[in-house]
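Hi R.,

As promised on Friday, here is the backbone we talked about, encoded as structure tokens. Could you run it through your design pipeline when you get a chance and send me back a sequence?
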């Protein structure tokens, strides 16, 4: 299986090496990566260009956001002519490699400050090949904080995930998902008008087209660096940040046709309660306990849950899901 990796990169010079080295360590050799430098003002481009492996290509563009950068990577993998001196029209390409002329079989979107386990691509490819009806394969991930200790996430979901995805984003990002190229071509790229939740909106469009298969392995395939300045840490406590993605998801006519207006309205109500829970949890993790518990209570009132009613007790201790962030440097 030919795997195309896309790394959007904006001012990530201190961390990009880790992402690239994790690709070079993969046991699955049939991959290529496009690193899209999205108008960085640090040495991100120089770091990417220093790797001369023939599977690595760097594209530079003016800052346009993570969605536009991912879309450029998709276009490059599928359309960029091979050769050291043939830039994609309208873009400055620093050639660290040449992309093979054949289209890839599947895509993985790796954040520039994360890294993959050495067998990540091999395991994800094996899972996707073993499930011909699946549009994507997903593996487990772990979060890495300042202490360097990994906090392992729950096992990944699988099957028909559309309704679950309409309630909450089930994936931390695209780094633990291997997605068939045909599915991406069918739904189109990421929406450049969304700066937060753009991946959530994209997963819902994918989920309309089929099911997901999960790796049976309990080991993580992706390591997610929790660092200051990440979009999640900046925006997760802002109620307004969620609304553009919510509106984009629920304006999708295909969803109304598939589920019906009444069912979609119910799922939106559940999603709004889920967002309230996330805001409350993140406020408490930042030490804003009073406001956080107000959002938690609002969530439970909107969508009653005995489990979450019990979890609110942990918020007073700031343990479990409420333990403080320890962002990695």
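Update: got your reply. Pasting your designed sequence below so it's all in one thread:
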């Amino acid at each position: 299986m030919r795997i195309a990796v896309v790394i959007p990169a904006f001012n990530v010079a201190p961390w990009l090496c880790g992402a690239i080295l994790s690709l070079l360590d993969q046991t699955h050799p049939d991959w290529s990566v496009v690193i899209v430098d999205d108008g960085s003002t640090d040495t991100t481009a120089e770091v990417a260009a220093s790797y001369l492996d023939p599977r690595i290509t760097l594209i530079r563009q003016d800052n346009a956001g993570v969605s536009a950068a991912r879309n450029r990577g998709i276009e490059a993998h599928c359309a960029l002519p091979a050769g050291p001196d043939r830039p994609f029209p309208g873009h400055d390409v620093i050639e660290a490699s040449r992309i093979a002329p054949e289209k890839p079989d599947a895509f993985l979107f790796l954040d520039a400050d994360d890294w993959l386990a050495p067998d990540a691509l091999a395991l994800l490819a094996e899972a996707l090949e073993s499930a011909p009806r699946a549009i994507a394969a997903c593996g487990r991930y772990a979060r890495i904080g300042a202490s360097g200790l990994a906090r392992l996430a729950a096992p990944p979901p699988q099957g028909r995930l559309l309704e679950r995805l309409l309630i909450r984003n089930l994936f931390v990002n695209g780094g633990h998902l291997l997605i068939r190229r045909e599915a991406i071509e069918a739904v189109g790229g990421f929406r450049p008008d969304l700066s937060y939740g753009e991946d959530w909106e994209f997963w819902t469009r994918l989920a309309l087209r089929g099911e997901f298969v999960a790796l049976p392995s309990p080991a993580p395939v992706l390591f997610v660096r929790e660092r200051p300045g990440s979009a999640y840490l900046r925006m997760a406590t802002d109620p307004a940040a969620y609304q553009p993605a919510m509106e984009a998801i629920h304006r999708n006519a295909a969803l109304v046709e598939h589920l019906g207006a009444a069912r979609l309205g119910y799922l939106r109500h559940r999603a709004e309660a889920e967002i309230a829970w996330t805001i409350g949890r993140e406020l408490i993790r930042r030490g804003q306990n009073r406001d956080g518990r107000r959002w938690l209570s609002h969530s439970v009132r909107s969508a009653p849950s005995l489990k979450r009613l019990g979890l609110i007790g942990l918020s007073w201790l700031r343990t479990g899901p409420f333990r403080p962030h320890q962002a990695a440097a």
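One thing I noticed while checking it: The chain has 13 helices and twelve strands.

Thanks again,
M.
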